[in-house]
């Protein structure tokens, strides 16, 4: 099984970095159009989506693909990649260097591997998390191949709380410094890597969270859905284009009740 996971990691790393090299050339130099939900899309999003999908079909022909810019219906496949060719398109289009490529691999509808690459920052995050799938293999969460963990010491009071543009009303008195990074996956990964205490996103889609969900679990942070619908497994035949996943990520379980009480979707 380790041979398979090594292949998966090498594929994700190679593909994301190759696509990222071209996107860096386009960065800040493309026109953006508006989609039905008010979010932006560029020709770079479309190109990256097609390139990643072609790479998946060539390397893993039996795997399905669910993509923000492609097919939104979850396919009847044991393995399926969920891809966000550019997470943070608004940042990308306006020259703000916080955007990335997100690749999540699902087994029977639940993420088990995630890879997120931010080309402008030179940061790659990845992780393995098998849950109750029965799968085995490498474990842990990493940034640039070094293990990451949430902050859990006294310094957390000086850390950040990440919010999103469509987000929540934060009750006054929150004892953290507010930040808005404009990229859902990175907002959560800052919690997993010990930079932020918590992060909240009001309406991310499945391509925003699939890869990050794995890395968060593997790092030891706490993923808290803010609605009553289970995040996973995904259902075969369901269209996920308009399905939001309001989410709170917290560095440790003991803070969840306090922080959850402070955010209102």
Walkthrough of the structure:
By secondary structure, this protein is of the alpha+beta class. It contains six helices and 16 strands. A seven-stranded mixed beta sheet has the order 3-4-5-6-7-8-9, sandwiched between helices. α1 packs antiparallel against α2 (43-59) and α4 packs parallel to α5. The protein is globular, with a radius of gyration of 17 Å. The model has no long low-confidence stretch (mean pLDDT 91).
Which short descriptors sum up this protein?
28% helix; 16 strands; 2 domains; seven-stranded mixed beta sheet; five-stranded mixed beta sheet; D-Maltodextrin-Binding Protein, domain 2; 6 helices; alpha+beta; Fructose-1,6-Bisphosphatase, Chain A, domain 1; 265 residues
């Amino acid at each position: 099984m380790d041979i398979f996971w090594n292949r998966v990691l090498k594929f994700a790393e190679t593909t994301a970095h190759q696509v990222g090299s071209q996107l860096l050339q386009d960065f800040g130099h493309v026109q953006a159009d508006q989609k039905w939900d008010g979010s932006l899309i560029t020709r770079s999003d479309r190109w990256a989506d097609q390139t990643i999908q072609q790479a998946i079909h060539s390397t893993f022909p039996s795997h399905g693909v669910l993509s923000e810019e492609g097919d939104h219906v979850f396919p009847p496949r044991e393995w399926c990649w969920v891809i966000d060719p550019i997470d943070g398109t608004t940042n990308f289009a306006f020259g703000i260097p916080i955007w990335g490529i997100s690749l999540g691999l699902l087994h029977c509808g639940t993420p088990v591997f995630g890879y997120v690459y931010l080309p402008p920052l030179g940061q790659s995050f990845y992780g393995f998390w098998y849950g109750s799938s029965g799968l085995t293999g490498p474990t842990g969460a990493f940034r640039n191949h070094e293990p990451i963990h949430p902050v859990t010491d006294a310094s957390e009071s000086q850390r950040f709380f990440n919010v999103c543009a469509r987000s929540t009303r934060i009750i006054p008195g929150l004892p953290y410094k507010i930040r808005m990074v404009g990229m859902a996956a990175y907002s959560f990964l800052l919690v997993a890597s010990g930079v932020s205490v918590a992060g909240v996103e009001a309406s991310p889609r499945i391509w925003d969270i699939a890869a990050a969900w794995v890395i968060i679990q593997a790092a030891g942070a706490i993923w808290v859905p803010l609605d009553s619908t289970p995040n996973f497994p995904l259902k075969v035949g369901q269209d996920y284009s308009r399905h939001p996943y309001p989410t709170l990520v917290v560095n440790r379980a003991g803070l969840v009740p306090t922080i959850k009480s402070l955010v209102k979707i």
